[in-house]
Amino acid sequence: xxxxxxxxxxxxxxxxxxxxxxxxxxxxxxxxxxxxxxxxxxxxxxxxxxxxxxxxxxxxxxxxxx
Length: 66
Known about the structure:
Layout: E1 2-10, E2 15-20, E3 25-29, E4 46-54, E5 57-65
């Protein structure tokens, strides 16, 4: 499990970016946000998640707010 801070999230497109605490960044998608019916993230919000790596970069999955 990783932790990080939301850099940005566009509720219209459902895509954003998370700064992983280890210094990397990961893409966040609405479809991977879990818990409480919340389908959006706020800038500066702390989250924990799993990482899935793709040729184009890292993607945050199973995203929960702290």
